[in-house]
Design goal:
The complex is a heterotrimer of chains A (about 400), B (about 280) and C (about 290). Chain A is α/β, with parallel strands linked by helices and about 400 residues long. Chain A has 19 helices and 14 strands. The chains are: A alpha/beta (about 400), B mainly alpha (about 280), C mainly alpha (about 290).
Chain lengths: ~400, ~280, ~290
């Protein structure tokens, strides 16, 4: 009885507080799939609980959302916060002096000591913190149908040759071995683990972190392209322009055996009420053992002259970097918290396995394309991969040469 | 002779089927429950048609965090549509009348310039337009998006009315001026009453164009005024696990309904208006 | 009378202003940006022709640029041919004319987004026509153009013709109704076959209408961004990319406004070069 009353009292008080200082914060993001929406709801609820008013501004698709943000910044009516993929792009925004400096919030929350160094580097510009990393996705996961793998008595492959051999068996059994949607970025998600598995951790880092064109022209890269060409034969006909979450349904419904994508895929499984290693399987991609391709979502806060907006931005940054909130957020998002000190005991077995790799230190922490290249170079790589993957005439040699040329021309 | 007639009707019926297939699929799917969609063909008739998906699309489908259905966008679209159509059609009529009947110096140059303007893709103009509108304080506002629709409607609207008025005999204007009527009186008392058919064509074109617009609404309207098409895209892409094709299709239909009704109700006038106006080229 | 002439000019002045500032001002701005190094945000330092050199060395641009002509020519010719054919058929005194006209016109009321989605479903090999025919008992039936790199662009043409043919039909029907009845009577007396009357006499009379149709269709080609995005996403790979999508991708996703502007300028230049002289002559002729 008394508990109910105190709960009601608390509710009334928090409502009164929000009425008194309802700092409205409109937040642009492109999280519109099932798991993503639930995850973003965690931030909204926590921000509202602390007296703010979250105004959800979901825009479908990263490019459209970024365009909306850029247009509003250019139009002098910036959103309070906007989501971005971490990497060179965010630093470019900061370079133009468009982002709010978050140094004091970061210091108070002890951010730097609790984030992987590669992420710290990518959320700072000129020694100042300019963005909030909210998650740490692994980009090299393979999600597979437990039913099909059990039925055919298969274990997740240890390298790509083994994967191809298994694919032949799966195809013979009447299933689609590899689910993939025909959108360029999905093909790039497949490309990265294929490259990493074919060329090894060292070389992957040389290409992606050091932009080493000699390694990019080497045999490992050519092998990766050959694997890509073979993988194409194991996809299904419904590929064109299919969204990644629709594609994942093929694995969910045991029509396709596997799909390669980041651990955001788990969010979709969770939204459907499925449990990892019970209803579906997760494994690090073939040949990717001991490596975690990091993909980080951040929120940036466009500069605003109004003091109340600045206050809202700082409160929002606090909420998003709160270890408990981040842990809760990532429960739905499927990722690890970017904060290494967040308690992840509630996260699933896949996340626990990922955390072990991350804790192995910087040698295991691989950059994804966005962390490694400007969005322009990122785009050139995407164009190459997608045209190669869909072409029946382009040779692996030609693709390797084109790849090396892009790496050679990328800024250091 | 008889065989030729049969062939003619067979051809026309075939063509009608071809034209209606996409709409039929969308309608049929929106009336099916998910279980039927999962197992059946998209060309199969619904076994037990019902409007559950329609209700959900209108009342409770989720766009991001909010689950209020597509009705929110309906009123926004409506508020954008009415002034945009009225003003852009009026502007086109006045322009066409001034160009064709009064033939001010440079009329042909302006017309050519406007027509070429119709070929500039939106994408080229977006960024500078945002700058211009924000400088005059109209960015992300209802007047802002209305202004954008009027501007992008100018070339085609002007062209349609100009062609229509150019086809009227010059004596009309001459006689009216001898009687002492001025620019505005001639327009309102003589020209407008003659223009009913072409006005209908213009209104139909603008209603469908503006109602169906996505890109401009997304960028210029701001989230408080986001039109129905923007909401539709959010609903179709906000999927909780499995895509609810029936709800998506119902939402698509609800969004497409107003212009569709306009066409079904006034298709006759549309053809008549084109006969009246466009015949002269 | 003088005052009235002034009124005409006053009425036109906002249009002049909008044309100069919004259409041409923005186009000039874009042209200038194409000569700079602008990446994320406009940068006004002059940088020569570097953006154009890079553009023409980009394979994806080559595909998109070629596609513009394939898509443009086929859509214009296809919609004209289908529209005209339908108009002639409907003009043969058929019953239920109103029904046929309405059914053929309604696609015009659908947005390109809806058109693209609907045709994507119909053409998708896994749920659409191919799946349907295979279920009917033809397991080897294949119709997967949307998944073929060298065919996907034609599926866009297909959907575009579906969308636009009704409008052309309406315009052409209007034209046919305007043809003098005496011509038909006279040719019947002479015993000239119907198809020759259409080809030799009626069609040439419809020439001005064809111009109107070409204008309307060309505008549709330039603005067909939504259709590509909804239907193929430019894929497979970038096989069905069009310049409009290339420009949007590079302005926003790739954060390379300079490159996007160079592409936009080439696109605009090509369209203008093809159309401007033609329109000027046509308008002059008709203005007199």
């Amino acid at each position: 009885m008394s508990r109910t009353r105190s709960a009601l009292l608390g509710l009334a008080m928090s409502m009164a507080a929000s009425a008194a200082s309802a700092q409205p914060a409109d937040v642009i993001h492109w999280w519109t799939s099932g798991g993503e929406s639930k995850a973003v709801g965690v931030f909204a609820a926590e921000y509202n609980k602390r007296g703010g008013t979250w105004i959800d501004n979901a825009v479908v698709g990263g490019p459209a959302a970024r365009a909306a943000s850029m247009n509003r910044i250019a139009g002098g009516n910036p959103p309070v916060a906007t989501m971005w993929n971490v990497g060179v792009a965010v630093r470019q925004l900061a370079e133009q002096g468009l982002l709010t400096n978050l140094d004091d919030v970061a210091k108070a929350g002890n951010w730097v000591a609790n984030l992987p160094p590669l992420i710290v580097k990518n959320i700072s510009y000129d020694g100042h913190i300019v963005a909030v990393p909210v998650d740490l996705h692994g980009g090299n996961w393979m999600f597979y149908s437990k039913k099909i793998y059990d039925e055919l008595k298969l274990q997740p492959a240890k390298d790509w040759d083994e994967f191809l051999a298994q694919a032949e068996k799966i195809k013979a059994a009447g299933y689609t071995p590899l689910a993939i949607g025909g959108q360029p970025f999905q093909e790039v998600w497949l490309w990265m683990p294929v490259l990493l598995g074919s060329t090894g951790k060292e070389n992957f880092k040389k290409i992606y972190a050091d932009h080493d064109a000699t390694v990019a022209a080497g045999p490992g890269v050519k092998k990766a392209f050959e694997v890509m060409a073979k993988l194409r034969q194991y996809t299904d006909a419904g590929r064109p322009n299919r969204k990644w979450n629709d594609t994942l349904l093929l694995v969910q419904n045991n029509k396709a055996a596997s799909q390669f994508l980041g651990d955001w895929g788990k969010g979709e499984f969770a939204a459907a009420g499925l449990k990892p290693m019970v209803d579906y399987g997760c494994a690090i991609a073939p040949g990717n053992q001991g490596a975690y391709i990091m993909n980080v979502d951040v929120f940036a806060f466009p500069k605003n002259s109004k003091p109340e907006v600045l206050a809202a931005q700082k409160k929002l940054a606090e909420v998003m970097m709160d270890p408990a909130t981040q842990a809760q957020f990532n429960l739905f998002k499927g990722a690890l918290p970017a904060r290494l000190d967040a308690n992840i005991s509630a996260l699933d077995v896949c996340a626990q396995a990922g955390k072990q790799i991350i804790d192995g230190g910087p040698a295991n922490q691989m950059p994804n394309t966005a962390l490694a290249f400007s969005s322009d170079v990122d785009g050139q790589i995407t164009d190459l991969i997608t045209s190669y993957f869909n072409s029946t005439t382009m040779t692996a040699e030609a693709a390797t040469a084109a790849f090396a040329k892009i790496i050679a021309n990328a800024d250091k | 002779m008889k065989a030729a007639r049969i062939g003619l009707y067979a051809f026309l019926l075939g063509a009608a089927l071809f034209f209606s297939i996409p709409l039929l699929i969308v309608v049929m799917t929106s009336l099916k429950p998910m279980t039927e969609i999962r197992t059946g063909s998209i060309f199969a008739l619904p076994l037990a048609p019902n409007f559950d998906a329609w209700v959900k699309a209108w009342m409770s489908a989720c766009t991001g965090l909010a689950c209020e259905g597509i009705r929110v966008g309906f009123w926004n679209s409506f508020r954008i549509l009415v002034p945009s159509v009225a003003l852009s059609v009026m502007a086109g009529a006045l322009n066409g009348y001034a160009l064709a009947q009064w033939k001010p110096p440079g009329a042909n140059a302006l017309l050519t310039a406007l027509m070429l303007g119709a070929f500039i893709p939106y994408q080229v103009i977006l960024y500078p337009m945002v700058k211009i509108l924000s400088n005059i304080g109209l960015y992300n506002s209802l007047p802002g998006i209305i202004a954008v629709h009027i501007i992008f409607g100018l070339p085609v609207m002007t062209l349609i009315f100009r062609n229509f008025y150019a086809g009227l005999p010059d004596e009309l204007l001459k006689a009216a001026r001898v009687d002492g009527a001025g620019f505005w009186r001639i327009f309102f008392e003589i020209m407008l009453p003659l223009s009913i058919n072409i006005l209908i064509v213009a209104v139909i074109l603008q209603v469908t164009g503006i109602w169906n617009d996505y890109l401009l609404g997304l960028i210029f309207a701001g989230r408080d005024n986001a039109p129905m098409t923007v909401q539709l895209n959010l609903i179709v892409n906000t999927s909780m696990g499995e895509q609810e094709h029936n709800v998506n299709m119902a939402a698509t239909l609800l969004t497409a309904l107003p212009p569709l009704l306009v066409y079904f109700a006034s298709g006759r006038y549309f053809v008549r208006g084109i006969t009246a106006g466009a015949v002269k080229g | 009378m003088r005052i009235s002439g002034l009124a005409a000019r006053l009425v036109l002045s906002p249009t002049v202003l909008v044309t100069v500032v919004c259409f041409y001002g923005c186009a000039v701005w874009t042209a200038y940006i194409s000569f700079t190094k602008s990446s994320f945000i406009p940068n006004y330092t002059f940088n020569g022709l570097a953006q154009y050199e890079r553009l023409f060395a980009t394979p994806r641009w080559g595909v998109a640029y070629t596609n513009m002509f394939i898509f443009g020519v086929l859509l214009v010719v296809g919609a004209l041919a289908v529209g005209l054919l339908l108009a002639i058929m409907i003009d043969r005194n058929v019953r239920g004319e109103g029904f046929f006209r309405t059914v053929m016109l309604y696609p015009l009321s659908m947005s390109f987004i809806v058109t693209g989605l609907a045709w994507q479903w119909v053409l998708s090999p896994s749920i659409g026509v191919q799946h349907f025919v295979r279920d009917l008992g033809f397991p080897n039936f294949t119709f997967d153009w949307i998944a073929q790199q060298d065919r996907a662009i034609y599926t866009l043409v297909f959907a575009g013709v579906w969308h636009q043919a009704g409008l052309i039909m309406a315009i052409m029907l209007a034209g046919l109704r305007g043809v003098d009845r005496d011509i038909w009577r006279a040719t019947k007396v002479e015993g000239i076959p119907t198809w020759r009357v259409y080809l030799g006499i009626v069609l040439p009379m419809l020439r001005p209408l064809v111009v109107t149709c070409v204008v309307l269709l060309s505008v549709a080609v330039v603005k067909s961004y939504d259709l590509v995005v909804a239907m193929t996403g430019g894929g497979p790979g970038f096989a069905s990319d069009l310049p409009g999508k290339f420009v949007v991708d590079f302005s926003f996703e790739r954060a390379n406004i300079g490159q996007a502007s160079a592409a936009a300028v080439v696109m605009l230049g090509s369209v203008f070069a093809a159309l401007a002289p033609y329109f000027y002559v046509e308008l002059r002729k008709r203005g007199q």
